[in-house]
Automatic annotation (TrEMBL):
Swiss-Prot/TrEMBL keywords: Phosphopantetheine, Phosphoprotein
Name of a matching Pfam family: PP-binding
InterPro entries registered for this protein in UniProt: ACP-like_sf, PP-bd_ACP, Ppantetheine_attach_site
UniProt source species: Roseicyclus elongatus DSM 19469
SUPFAM superfamilies reported in the protein's UniProt record: ACP-like
Protein name (database record): Phosphopantetheine-binding protein
Gene3D superfamilies: ACP-like
Organism domain of life: Bacteria
Limits of the Carrier domain: 1-80
Taxonomic lineage of the native organism: Bacteria, Pseudomonadati, Pseudomonadota, Alphaproteobacteria, Rhodobacterales
Amino acid sequence: MTNTEYRALFLEELTRIAPDIEADTVADDEHIQDDLGLDSMDVLNLVTALHTRLGFDIPEGDYPRIETPAKAAAYLAERAAASEGA
C-alpha cells in the first residue's frame, strides 16, 4: 500500500469512530483530538479498529505518531513494512 492508501484507510476508520467528520474535509495536519474533537476513548477505539484492519498493534507510546492523517499514513506504512519483515 502507498501512503495515500494508508491515509484513506486511516480516514475511513476515523469516520467510523466519529461519523460527524467528513473525510474529504480533513487536512493532513489536523490533530485528531485538538482539531477534530476525538476524546481518549475515541482514540482507543480508532487504535483498536486499525489493529483489527491491519493486524498489528499500535503501542500507546506511539499514539502521537497517529495524531494527524499525514503522520498516521507514514506510521502505518512503516509498521506494516516492519510487520511484513518480521
